[in-house]
Amino acid sequence: MRRYNFSTHTHTLVAVSLLYLLFTLQTLLLAYNIEDSLTPTLEKITVLPITNHTDFNAHTKQQQQKRHAGRQRNYGALHEMSIDVVADQVQQEVNATAIVSALISNGIVNFDPESGYVYEDRQGHVVKRENIEYDLSGLRVYNVGVLMASHLDSPFDLERCGPAVDLALDVINEEFLKPHKIKLRKVQASYPSCSGAKAPGLAADMHFKDDVIAFIGPACAFALEPVARLAAYWNSPIITGMGDQPPSDDELTVTSGILGKIHKWKNESTGMFKDKSKYPTLTRMSYCQCRLKLVFASIFRQFKWKHVALIIDRSDLFSLTVGKNLEYGLRQEGLLSFVRELNGNEQEPYENYLKDASMYARVVILSLRGMLVRKFMLAAYTLGMTNGDWVFLDVEIFQSSYWGDHDWEMGDALDSHARKAYEALLRVSLLQPTNPEYQGFADQVRVMAKAYNYSFSDGEEVNFFIGAFYDGVYLLGMAFNETLTEGGDIRDGVAITRRMWNRTFHGITGHVRIDDNGDRDADYSISDLDPINGKFEVVAHYYGLHREYSAVAGKKIHWPGGREGPPPDVPRCGFLGNAPECHGNVVYLMCKQMKLNNELNNMSWRVRPDEVLLEVGRLHGSKVGLQKLNVENFSLQQYDIHSGRASIASCTSLPLTQVFTTIGIFKGERVAIKKIHRKKVDITPTLLWEIKQARDVSHENTVRLLVHV
């Protein structure tokens, strides 16, 4: 009887099973894996240009858009709004659908099974090529993280800047990375507000879960700061199209429109992102507000102005940022003579700020939100400060509701006065590209923004920040290309970042120069109001490359009051009108000067310590006595009726036990006493003048300064 060889049969079954398993695994790899070897049977897809792409009928396009929508999570809503394509026929039929499906699932190419075409999307623009071959074997895909605020209605949110990032990624994948068999794929996340609450956590998810090799965004500084620190630790390059903040030695709490309340912000006076030892992989592609001092300084040099006044709205984040940067920079240049801050949320007599400024300068910078600029210019008109002897400057980065309305025209009865006043105003803005290349880019952004459920409103420009994000991604692609060409490590974030610093290139926003500290030297425009049409027109530029004022050919500033040139730095009669050459009568001049000197030298504000009697009593008791002030051993806590500080409002109307400050009696008047912690006070003419001004202030909401002890 023949025995059945179970061993041989078993071996055969095992071999067949292994072959079937290998075939199945190979098929799965062809369909879904793109890391090292997409397919052993199809190593090259020959791409032939097809000029007639009418074969893509409406049904095919609808099916393709559905497939795009299904892949939206993998590489973002990039292509679904595009219609015109370049169709490239697959030259080999073996497993074409499966292979291309693998490419499609990873967002590398697009395939239409009904027409049998593989094609690459170009966002609505047909691209014709010569016959070339793409070797898709061994393609490597790296993730980059896009992290921005969403639905913030700001010039730098995801809905506006996202399409620009998508366009730039497509370009660098095609121009720089395809020869290296590398593709960058977008991993996207967003957060709801301009703060550091969620951005660091989202960045950590991208790093640990998605293994991103670079970060694009955040834009606003409060989210950027913690993410930039993490990126430095992970050695990942990070690029932003914005990123700036107010320099200050103190903690700031401000409100800023849509950004809401910003809590407890503290950094150094030079601006925290300037210290790249803390952020060695950060590159800022937009303007740096720290450079605004150079723009203004170039204007002041051009017109020989050396005495400048600055008025800052501390209640608005942008105004505070610009103002503090200008204060720090212009003070270093020795140009700043006067600085005042105000709370823009409160109604104040703005004329007082202008009167004070006029004692020190005839050039006034208004770092204010839009509506306040108009109010100050109307106040200047009322004071006669728009007749050509004064000049005002403000900053409007670009026209946007985000910065407020800086226009003179509001449709009210004061429009005519405002228009006349604005003739004395020069405006500093970012240089907005107007070339055909940028306009084509802007058109593409508007179309692709619909994929983000956003539509640009009528008259809304594709702003500078959007272009800055595009240029940032493009620069990153250049650095990757150079690194790969020289055999470097694409994951070395510090090395990649150093390739982006200290270089220039032509970007979508024009000439781009990144300095040796990773910040852009942006270009600016200086605009003047044309008195004929009532519109601001560019009369000069500031180019970051040359750092100097450059007048526009054929344009000139319309100086108010019929002037042919700028007002002088110092008026002929001086800021106070007491220059000798302004008075022919020497006796009159001497009398006026003597009167002023007498007022300044009037020491009635100084009193002897024994003239002040302090009210003292028990902590919560009703017994109150008087005691002479002992300056040597004076202590507020020693004489406080209640420990702690208090408001001085209406001291005479409150019961004594409800007043929380040191109280004294001087010439029968109840007064509040505050100790100044200075060992020595030098009596200088400047101090005497300030004391005179302080004593002259009278308002129902302020406590009048009486004396100094």
Automatic annotation (TrEMBL):
Gene3D superfamilies: 3.40.50.2300. It holds the Pfam family ANF_receptor. It is found in: Membrane. Keywords: Glycoprotein, Membrane, Receptor, Signal, Transmembrane, Transmembrane helix. One of its GO terms (biological process) is signal transduction. It comes from the Eukaryota. Residues 160-530 form the Receptor ligand binding region domain. It is a single-pass type I membrane protein. One of its GO terms (molecular function) is peptide hormone binding. GO terms for cellular component: membrane. Its main location: membrane. The keyword Transmembrane helix applies. This is (Mediterranean fruit fly) hypothetical protein. It comes from Ceratitis capitata.
